[in-house]
């Protein structure tokens, strides 16, 4: 069962991102402040759930959260500042958009750039440990998937409706055949040197 909060004193927001390992599209991040007693049996790290479960949880999180916000940083910005900085920037943008500023921030992962002077804790695999981070992972993932689904209509060859921009065999085969798009991250190695790549 996920823990409700990390500390008892301050208003706490959970943060997570989606799309760091993708070859195309923005990185999305969400910040969520949940009620202290929030619990839902389905809530978990978004990667452990089916798409239908994530969609159901997105509705629940948006309805039950005290405050939530989602933000993104596009592929051009990712190429300029690098994906790690872009992930932190997306989290900062999501935090800025919250109607209530938190007094403490819980972040999924092992690194974070401080947001103003608000204290934070980095939690490795935090989306499987704390409800607010899991809720943020659900929002970041579902908003990003929706965005890539819309892009798929413009660029159907790449299979973004299925792979969401991750480096699958289909995605890389399409890059070989059709070249890249304005949504690809040019700073990423879009094609491996080794042509005998296994399906991810």
UniProtKB/TrEMBL annotation:
Residues 10-200 form the RNase H type-2 domain. Transmembrane segments: none annotated. Its main location: cytoplasm. It is found in: Cytoplasm. CDD domains: RNase_HII_bacteria_HII_like. It comes from the Bacteria. Its EC number is 3.1.26.4. InterPro entries: RNase_HII (IPR022898), RNase_HII/HIII (IPR001352), RNase_HII/HIII_dom (IPR024567), RNaseH-like_sf (IPR012337), RNaseH_sf (IPR036397). A divalent metal cation binds at residues 16-17, 108. Manganese or magnesium. Binds 1 divalent metal ion per monomer in the absence of substrate. May bind a second metal ion after substrate binding. Its cofactor is Mn(2+); Mg(2+). Keywords: Cytoplasm, Endonuclease, Hydrolase, Manganese, Metal-binding, Nuclease. GO terms for molecular function: RNA-DNA hybrid ribonuclease activity. It catalyses: Endonucleolytic cleavage to 5'-phosphomonoester. It holds the Pfam family RNase_HII. Belongs to the RNase HII family. Endonuclease that specifically degrades the RNA of RNA-DNA hybrids. This is Ribonuclease HII. It comes from Chitinophaga defluvii. The gene is rnhB.
């Amino acid at each position: 069962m996920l823990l409700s909060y990390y500390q008892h004193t301050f208003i706490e927001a959970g943060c997570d991102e989606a799309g760091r390992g993708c070859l195309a599209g923005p990185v999305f991040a969400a910040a969520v402040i949940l009620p202290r007693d929030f619990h839902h049996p389905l809530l978990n790290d978004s990667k452990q759930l089916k798409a239908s479960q994530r969609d159901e949880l997105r509705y629940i999180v948006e309805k039950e959260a005290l405050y939530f916000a989602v933000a993104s940083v596009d592929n051009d910005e990712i190429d300029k500042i690098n994906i790690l900085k872009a992930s932190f920037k997306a989290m900062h943008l999501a935090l800025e958009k919250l109607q209530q500023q938190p007094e403490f921030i819980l972040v999924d992962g092992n690194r974070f750039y401080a947001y103003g002077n608000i204290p934070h804790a980095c939690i490795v695999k935090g989306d499987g440990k704390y409800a607010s981070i899991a809720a943020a992972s659900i929002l970041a993932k579902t908003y990003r998937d929706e965005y890539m689904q819309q892009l798929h209509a413009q660029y159907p060859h790449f299979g973004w409706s299925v792979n969401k921009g991750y480096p699958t065999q289909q995605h890389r085969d399409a890059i070989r055949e059709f070249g890249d798009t304005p949504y690809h991250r040019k700073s990423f190695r879009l094609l491996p040197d080794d042509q005998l790549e296994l399906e991810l």
